[in-house]
Structures are given as C-alpha cells and as structure tokens.
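Async update (no meeting this week)

Hi team, since we skipped the sync, here's where things stand on the single-chain job. The sequence we agreed to prioritize is pasted below, unchanged from the tracker. I ran it this morning and attached the output directly underneath so nobody has to dig for it. Comments welcome in thread, and please keep replies under the output.
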Amino acid sequence: MKKIVLLFVLSLSISTFAQKKDKTLITIDGKKTTISEFKRIYEKNLDAIDNDEAKSVTKNLELFINYKLKVKEAYSLKLDTLPSYRREMETYKNQLSAPYLQDTTYIDKLVKDAYFRTKNQVKAKHILIRMPREASPKDTLTAYNKIFKLREKILKGEKFETVAAQFSEDGSAKDDAKTGRKGNGGNLGYFSAFRMVYPFEVAAYSTKIGEISMPFKTQFGYHIMQVDDFKESKGEIEAAHILIKDKSDAGKKIADDIYNKLVNKESFEDLTKQYSEDTGSKKKGGKLGKFSEGRMVKPFSDAAFSLEKINDFSKPFKTRFGWHIVKLLKKHPIKSFDEMKKGLKAKIKKSSRMQLSEKAVVNTLKNKYSIIEFEKAKKILDNKNLRAIPKDSLKNTIISINNKKIAQEEFINYIRNRRHLPVYKLFEMFKEDQILTYYKENLIYTEPEYAYTLKEYEDGLLLFELMQQKIWNKSSNDTIGLEKYFKTNLSNYKTDDLKSVKGQVINDYQAYLETKWIADLRKKSSIKVNKKQLKKLIKFYGIE
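Output:
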C-alpha cells in the first residue's frame, strides 16, 4: 500500500516554475498555483488513466488540491529539516545533476575516437622518466628536461631501443640479470583503445609512423614514444592451447608428438587434459577466453591470429613459458559503430577519460562566469602550517563566483584531508569544485526540466514522510481504532473475524483516516478556484 501511495504521490508532484504570463488556477491561503502547473501534472498522468471518469478535469483538480494541502502541511511541520530527508535530497541532487556536468558534444567525440582506436591498432615503443606522486614544479621541470635530452639523442641517430634499455625507468625495457629476462627496449607491441592510460593512448594515435613524439605526461611521469606500425584490428578471437613447460628439445618432442596425434584426428580437449601443464585452462579443455591481438606474448598472438578457420590448430611454437599448440575456437570481428556506440559510451563513462568531459564543462563555465581570486587572501597558501590556521583568521573572501563569496575557511576545510598534492594544485582543484558547486546550485534557475524533476522528488519525499506519520503508522499501531472501525463497518466484510481480513481492513482504515484528515486540512485552509479558468480547461480537454 505504501509503495502504491508513494508512486501516486510522485506522479502528482508539481513544480513552482511556470511561465510569467500563466493565469492563476487555484489559491490556497494566499499562495497561487498556475494553470501550467496543473496541466503539466494532468497531462503527465493522462496516458496512465484508462477510463474517462478518472480523466475528469474536475476530479483531478480536487486530487491536486488535496496534494497541495498535504505538501503545505509537511512544510508547516518542518519535515524538510529532518536529517534523513536532507541526506536523501543531497544524494538525489548529485544523481540528478550528473548528466548536466557532462559535455555531450565532447562525450560524442570520445566515443568516435574510441571506435576508431578499437577498429585500428597501433604498435609503439616508449621511454619513461618517472616523477614523484607529489611532484613539485622543480620535479616536473627536471623530468621534462631529462626526457627531452633523450629525445635529442635518438634524433641524432642513436637507436630508440638502446636508449630505452639504458635510460628508461620502465623496468621492462632493461635486461634483468637475476632472472635472465631480456628487456623489451620499450616495445609495447600492438594495442588499441582502453589498453593504455588515456594520455598515452592519445599520444600513440597522434604520432605518425617512424616519428618521435614530443614529451608528454601521464600519471607515471614523462614519456617519449615512437610509433612503428598502424593497422586495422582483427578484432578478438577465442582460442584454446596445450602448454608443455619444458623449453628444451625434450619439451619440443612432447609437443611434436601431441601435434601428430591432433593431425591423426585425436581430440584436442582430451589431449589438453592429458598433457597440458597450464593448470588454469587444462580443466576447460585449454580454453583461454576472448582476447585481442597484442594481449598475449607476441609469438602466441602471432600464432593464434594466423589461424584462418575455426578449429584450425597451429604447429608447436615456443614462448618464454614453454611449447604451445593453439587452436582457434571463434572469431569476433569489430562490429559497426552503431552496434558498439552504446557499449563504448558506457565504457567511457566508467573510465578516467570521463573527467575530461567534466573538465570541458568547467572550462566553459570559467568563460561564462565572473570569477575573481583575491590575491591578498590567497597569501595563506604560503603558510607552511596552513591547516593549523585558527578559524577566526579565515573569514576573508578567497574566491568569488558571480555574486557568491567563498571564504578562506572553506578552502581549508576542502584541503584538510587532502595531503597528497601541492597546495597550488589543491587550490586549482578547490576553485573548479566551487565552480561546479555554483553551477549545480543554480540549475533550478537555468534548467527547467531539472527544476521540475527535483521539485517532484522533494515534495514526494516529504509527502511520504507525512503519510508515514499521519496514516500508515497510525493504521498499523492503533489497534483499538482499527477494531472500532472494523466493528462499525462490519457489514462491509463477510466475517466477524478481524484477523482473517486484517489486510483489507487496514487498507480501508487508511483510506478512512486520509479522508478525515483531508477534510480537516480543507476546513482550516482558504481555497479559491478560478472558475473561469477551470471552465476553459474543461473545454480544452473536453472532459468535465
């Protein structure tokens, strides 16, 4: 019953945002409600009403007045000050405002870029110079100059792989004397969208084949890159393999014997279970799941993607893991843009690149708003014990956005538990956070649909709490009242046993309490209906 009433409450909710020229339809205790407010709710519910009687303009207006009276009562009881209500509204505001913090044009571009980079692979190598997580401007400059000099070495003729093996701070580039592992010289093989951190991906798809990129920054530090190849992706495949870990000739002999058995039509799955030493895939007949080119070590990837027909299998080949035979199970070519668009957009929204969309919104707002930084107040940023400054000394305005003034104290509160970045970066983050906060606070004035929806939820939540207090709890807890109601209306039920029809009686009792309560609200309120405008509405909809 409660859920049904709440849905009804939410569907009847209204907004106070209407056109200036709207005529007044009803006035309750001096507060006017316009025609457009009623029409918005009435028209919203028309499709859900399946009979003409329920579509009656007059009857819907009466329900509308009842609703307005309930909401008015909720505010008079200060239910909007309840901590639970405020928490719920804050959560909902954040959810509702989220789409407005996205630059849809920018997101569309990200989706198109992601599709292009899914359809096409790039092969690249890189050199990395790391930076501390809390890098100062000096740290940043030092790393940039160091990698810029490495770039000059390569441009003057030194081999990229040699410079990478000697100077790159990506450990995989160097030989490992302890394990005997050969370094990759910075070679990353082929990759596509979402495989690398976003700035690295952008650099890879922006650098021409053979060229050395300018230094660029990621969360790891500064990189330079050389692109070796660019080709259309073969999509993904599903494959299975048999692994013999012995990398010697003895291991090769076992692999060759298995291969001959396969040629003689023995079952790949059975041979996998009998011989494979990959414990992770052995019980599954060697199945490895879906993977793209470049996801596996190069010899394995080359062998798997060279298979043309489903159920084809390779000759034995060697990787650093041992000897393999791989079998092609299924091909998954790249789908069309229309087929992939929705999935790519969802993937983007879950990835770090979504922050770029929000950044685009912030940059737009920076140009739109009047933003002033107060340099005198900003001098607190030079204080080494910034977070220990007494609150009484933090009352000056540090930023203003249009007419909103933001005090130093708000900045200190923002950075109190943020100690992983330099203060100057934290100030920029704070400023952008305040710009977005101001934008969200003003959405009710700039975005009518947002305002309508927020008001619906706000009033619906209040009314739910009000109904809980006035009707639902009373009908459940007032056993004496329930029994009295049952005995008074015994003729409506086919039994004198309350327990057997208790659910039905509770529903009827709730309706009785609500009717009585509404009558009391109407008695203590002054309600005026503009009959002239009501007649126009009835004529317009053709339903009295």
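Quick observations from my side:
The longest strand covers residues 221-232.
The chain has 22 helices and 14 strands.
Reply here if anything looks off.
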